[in-house]
Amino acid sequence: MYVAVKGGETAISNAHRLMANRRRGDRNVPALSVEQIVNQLSLGVDRVMAEGSLYDPELAAMAVRQARGDLIEAIFLLRAYRTTLPRFSNARPIDTNRMRIERRVSATFKDIPGGQLLGPTFDYTHRLIDPSMAGDEAVAHPVKRERPTDESCPRVTDLLDSQGLIEADVPSNDEPGDLTREAIAYPVGREIRLQALTRGDEGFLLALGYSTQRGYGRTHPFVGEIRIGMVDVEVEVPEVGFAVCIGAIRVTECQMVSQFKGSGDSPPRFTRGYGLIFGQSERKAMAMSLVDRAMRADEFNEQRLAPAQDEEFVLEHCDNVQATGFVEHLKLPHYVDFQAELDLLRTLRREAAMASADTPMSEAAE
What we know:
Number of strands: 4
GO biological process, one term: organic phosphonate metabolic process
Protein name: Alpha-D-ribose 1-methylphosphonate 5-triphosphate synthase subunit PhnI
Mean pLDDT: 89
Number of domains: 2
Pfam families: PhnI (PF05861)
Largest sheet: 4 strands, antiparallel
Number of helices: 13
InterPro entries: PhnI
Helix content: 25-40%
Order of helices and strands: HHHHHEHHHEEEHHHHH
Strand order of the largest sheet: 1-2-3-4
Radius of gyration: 26 Å
């Protein structure tokens, strides 16, 4: 229960000024620009865009700066801004087969058509702090792209599908629901689940994905492929009769190859888990694909025994903005609630004391 508090406006105003002062920091140090955040803290910006459901690096960087680096607060800011934007059309599904690839790796096959491209990654770095990070001595050298942009890079899962070794990826012609405009009603379709996982907290999904690997879910995963790059966003324009490209976005796509499943009508074959995230967000995309596969238990007649397989549990608790609001609201005044609990506790203690005083000594001894 919230109660009105009078006389607090001055204190709140002062708190805002103090926060702005702390955000600026030492005036002898140059202020951090939005461009610096976009270019040099890009992975943090990518996470804010992904979980904020809005692809705009500059706005995300502004939110990071305003939130003093608190990414969940920045995500909250970006989502709040998103609600003010008009929605004028649905884009066509992006075609990741036509991605301008910056990074592409597979853990299932060494040699794949189009080859593997390490790209920008921490995977092969020594986890040692580089002293040059203390200053501006670290100069990035331009990297020449050696892969032709028109080279074909079919998905690894498509290669398995061509041999009937993995469940078919059947596209749906139905218009997907919109998690941000419609309340969730269980059970939900896979497209709603994927939307929720895309917006979900990276740490929460990482823990759930990890749990599936440790036996709390039916996954025995292999990374079929992770690819990162730019894809075009196209919108159908009725006036011209064809799709028009309105821009390009960077995305991370993960196809997870998991335990095989068969039936009386079909031989055993691998199953899929899928993740697609704004920006470079490999850890999140992998965790998402693990949880996606775990929540498909009903499709494969598997028992739901683990938290990651529980659709309602996962979707109701993966949103970090909702979780933050529910946890942090405990800081707000709850004076009436607490006084009620305190009065109840004192009453119970008095009753217990009276009952103890009325108990005969002989009964107490027994």
